[in-house]
Each structure stands twice: as structure tokens, then as C-alpha cells.
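Encode chain A's predicted structure.
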Amino acid sequence: MESGAAPADALREATWVATLTRVEPRIKGIIAQVDLSKDNESLRQLDQLMEISLFRGVRGNFPKDAHQSRVFSEGMQRLARHRYSFDLLISAPLMETAVAVAQKHPDNVFILDHLGSPDIKTNETAAWKKGIKKLAALPNVHCKLSGMITRIGKDWSLEQLKSCFYYVTENFGTDRLVYGGDWPVVLRAGSYQNWSRAFEKLTKNFSRDELHQIYHRNADRIYNL
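Encoded structure for chain A:
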């Protein structure tokens, strides 16, 4: 997953990560940073990333006019041709645009990061729920279960997570959900172990097959690993 490198270093970052597989075989894919809304240079960068064998998709800026952008649309088409994914790092205000983009590009694979960043701390989630309902109705949109305790901070509680967590799992279904660790950003709210243990408690009533789907099988399919 892109790590937030400066845009000018994004290609170099992906190339460097690819070399790490020589010592770390668990690396199976790279989701790289590309701003497909920027200009034709971003399309050239995308072409260069496609030459990296571990490249599996893009995570980058998602502008409010993405559904009207020629460059963004061309980038989506290139991703679809090679079955590369696009991670949606958005919150409620951009969900209508995301719906329009996903409808316009039905052959693309989209992953909503961090449950669409609901405002869990204040529980003001009406707009977020409306957006989740619309996104989940589109078969080419999936959702990553991550970033929840990070949204709250060190004073988070398991009870605060339940409403949004179960709303997403109910709407997307376990065959379109992917577990995400959100490391190292999760350290702002505690530790990776804190989140993983909370996730285990939230999914204690899920079947073994459902857990296999969320932990690895869905990611294998969605990210084409």
C-alpha cells in the first residue's frame, strides 16, 4: 500500500519496495501512489508502474469532479484493461462522486478504504450511511475494514466501533470485505495488536469461512494476488 511518499518519489518508492521481495517473500503486491487527476504526466507514471510485476493498483487523490475528468477517466480505463484496482481514500462528502465514477466504470475494481472514514467519535454518520448504502449496491465496489480506532484516538472503546462496523458488514456482505491493519498510522490510537484484538471481538460470531474471506481470500481475488 502506498505509504504517503512525496508524489515525485512515488515511482521510486514502488520500485524500491519491489526489490524487498528478495528478502521478504510475503510481499505479494503493491498499491502505488498516483494522482490520476493531475495531468498527462500521471498517465505516463501509471504506464511506468505497470512495468513492475508486483504492481496491483492505485491509491491517490480523488477529486470532487473525478466523474467529469478526462484524464481520470482515461486512467480508469487503463487500470480496467489490466485488472488493476483503485483504492478510494474518501469520506462522506465524496461518496456521491465515488458512486458516479463506479457506475461510469463498471469494469474497474474499487476498494473503499477505512470504511469510508465515518465520524465514529461524534457518531454523526447519517450522510456516511447514505453513501455506504449506495456504494455497497454497486458490485464493483469493495470495502476495507481498517482505520477505525485511528479515527477516534487513544480513548477509543469497542462499543464505539460496533455501529459502523456492523453497518458496513451488513451492507457489503463478507464476500466484499477486506481486513486492513492500518499500520503504522494505527499507532496514533494504540498498537496494531489493539486493533487486531478488537477486530477479533467484533467478528467473534462470524463463521470460519467468513473470516477466511475477510482476512485473505477476498484480498487475493480483489487485488489479483
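The chain has a mean pLDDT of 93.
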